[in-house]
Amino acid sequence: MFVEEFICSITKKAPNDVFFLFESLNNLLQNSTEQVNAVTADLIDLELLHEIETIVKNGNTSVYFGKTLRDLKLMIEDEEFRKHEMFIQYKSPKKLIILSANLPLSSMQNLEFGCINEIIEIFKQHVNDLAKYFYELDNIDQCCTVMEPQNATYKDEYRRIFLDDRTWLHIEVTLEGLGTNIHLVGQSEYWNNKLQSGLLNWDHDKNIVDNIITIFDISQFPEPTSTVPGHLCSEADGAKLTTIVCGICLCTDLPEIPGLPLPLCQNSSCGVYYHRSCLYEWLVACAGNRPPAFGVATGACPTCLQPITCSKTDS
Amino acid sequence: MAAMSPSERRLQKELMSLMKEPPPGVTVDGDQASQNLTLWTVHMEGVPGTLYEGEKFVLQFKFTNKYPFDSPEVTFIGNNIPIHPHVYSNGHICLSILTDDWSPALSVQSVCLSIVSMLSSCKEKKRPPDNSFYVKTCNKNPKKTKWWYHDDSV
């Protein structure tokens, strides 16, 4: 009996139906116990299947199978009805590890667990500890125009908030829900002066959004005006977030290098964004491919020809 | 689908936008270009009210895998090469943005517009003064020519 093939065929038929899988597996076991035991023991743990069955019957957590029966996805709902995804892997009997989740995992990733319920308990505790973190991120995502990351999730511990076409505010949120490493992307003197004087009065008892409102003395968060000028593809039909493309590669995302196009040109009438890596490559190529001193390339903006500088990495 | 290189990605985007919203009098051969993204044929019509009214020209764009960091190789092809002080009879064009002044912020569309405007501002149809010598001695690739941009007015 080709157990592996058999399991493949049933998982294809009903990839997420644990009961069906379980029933089919039971049938199989009853029909040919001897042959199967040796193989299944290696493939999948019956104890684990029983546990999955109980978890799914309880209804608080959904369990899905991945590419193999060893890869599981858990969907756990917290007290605020947020759904959290977690990917776990069955290593060997009573040895499960967490592969990834849609939120920062801190030290949980390197631990081994005896059963799924153990993981769920620890995860729920972790989620409770992160309550303030979720609150702050939700609040930022609701009140501000977040330019980066695109489609931000709880896994992203930072936000880049739109201030104007040339300036974004970078803020990281600690797992305790505190704002940290706050700085500007872009070199606007106006926003920078406010940030420098305001940071001293940052009040950790107030939430992040209120702090930003106080620092910059704004009544509401600015939003990008229709489309950012100078781009070939602006398919933001009335959407709040405009699609920003790099003036060099005309793309938003680069598969090879993370990061979105940035307002790197400081000429206020230019308004074209570039990927740091694209602009850097061009400026270095213009300078005869010699690596620049201190990793900062200088030259002319490809669009407006005004002087521009670009460091190799995001500082 | 195989992963596209950065130059292919950009060319694909430019092609889509040029086919969707071509500048007046300019049409790109989309079928040919999508089969081979590194070789485009662009048809161009002389602008009404200029010396080239009613004429039809064909431009060829060749791209390397370094595009847009490397400028495209642009020449007139076919049997109607415009008679213009900056266009040699072999189709080579003396235009600074095609070599020294190239910038990755330029595009096929902006190159086409520059060429249209170069033709449109012409006051007298004639070949460049060094045409016969240049055509006999030049490299096949106009980017290998060390151009001397002697006249900004046309």
From TrEMBL, chain A:
Residues 134-224 form the FANCL UBC-like domain. Residues 243-312 form the FANCL C-terminal domain. GO terms for cellular component: Fanconi anaemia nuclear complex. GO terms for molecular function: ubiquitin protein ligase activity. GO terms for biological process: interstrand cross-link repair; protein monoubiquitination. InterPro entries: Fancl, FANCL_C, FANCL_d3, FANCL_d3_sf, Znf_RING/FYVE/PHD. This is E3 ubiquitin-protein ligase FANCL isoform X1. It comes from Trichoplusia ni.
TrEMBL record, chain B:
This is N-terminal E2 ubiquitin-conjugating enzyme. GO terms for molecular function: ubiquitin conjugating enzyme activity. InterPro entries: Ub_conjugating_enzyme, UBC, UBQ-conjugating_enzyme/RWD. The keyword Coiled coil does not apply. PROSITE patterns: UBC_2. It catalyses: S-ubiquitinyl-[E1 ubiquitin-activating enzyme]-L-cysteine + [acceptor protein]-N-terminal-amino acid = [E1 ubiquitin-activating enzyme]-L-cysteine + N-terminal-ubiquitinyl-[acceptor protein]; S-ubiquitinyl-[E1 ubiquitin-activating enzyme]-L-cysteine + [E2 ubiquitin-conjugating enzyme]-L-cysteine = [E1 ubiquitin-activating enzyme]-L-cysteine + S-ubiquitinyl-[E2 ubiquitin-conjugating enzyme]-L-cysteine. Residues 6-154 form the UBC core domain. The keyword Lipid biosynthesis does not apply. Keywords: Transferase, Ubl conjugation pathway. It comes from the Eukaryota. GO terms for biological process: protein ubiquitination. Its EC number is 2.3.2.23, 2.3.2.25. Gene3D superfamilies: Ubiquitin Conjugating Enzyme.
